[in-house]
Amino acid sequence: MLRTTRTLRNAAAALAVLLLSGAAAFAEDPSGKLVIVTSFPKDMTTAFQQAYQKANPKVTVEILNRNTNAGVKYLQETASNNGVDLFWASAPDAFEVLKGAGLLQPYKPKVEGIPEKVGAYPVNDPEGMYAGFAASGYGIMWNSRYMKANDLPVPKEWADLTKAVYYDHVAISAPSRSGTTHLTIETILQGEGWEKGWRTNKEMAGNYRTITERSFGVPDGVNSGAFGVGIVIDFFALSSQASGFPVEFVYPTVTTIVPANVGVVKNAPNKAAAEGFVDFLLSPKGQEVLLEPAIRRLPVNPVTYEKAPAGYPNPFKDTSLGSQVNFDVNVSQARYNVVDALFDQLVTFQLDDLKAATQAIHKAEAALAKKPNDKAKALLAEARDLVAAMPVTAEQAADPQLAGAFTVERKSAKDAVPERQAQVEQKWAAFAKENYASARKKADEALALAR
Amino acid sequence: MTSLALTRDRIARVRPGPALAALLIAAFLLLFLVVPVVQVIFVAFQDKTTGAFTLVNFADFFQNDLFMRSFWNSFYVSAMSVVVASLLALPLAYLTTRFEFRGAVLIQSLGIIPLIMPPFIGAVAMQLLFGRNGSVNLLLRDHFGFSIPFMEGLNGVIFVQSIHYFPFILINLSASLRNIDRAMEESAQNLGCHGFRLFRRIVFPLAMPGYVAGASLVFIKVFDDLGTPLLLNVNDMLAPQAYLRISSIGIADPMGYVISVVLIACSLLALWVSALAMRGKDYATVQRGGGGLAKRRLKPLEMVAAYGIVLLILVLVLAPHVGLGLLSFATIWSFSPVPDAFTLKHYQTVFTESGQYITNTLLYASLAALLDVVIGTAIAYLVLRTKLPGRQWLDYIAMAALAVPGVVLGIGYLRSFYDVPMPFTGQPLSNFWLILVFALAIRRLPYALRACTAALQQVSSSLEEAAENLGATKLRTVGRIVVPLMSGGILAGFVTSFATAAVELSATIMLVHSQSDAPLAYGLYVYMQSAAGRGPGAALGIFAVIIVGLGTYLSHVVIERGRRERGQDH
Question: Complex ipTM, two decimals?
Answer without folding.
Answer: 0.76
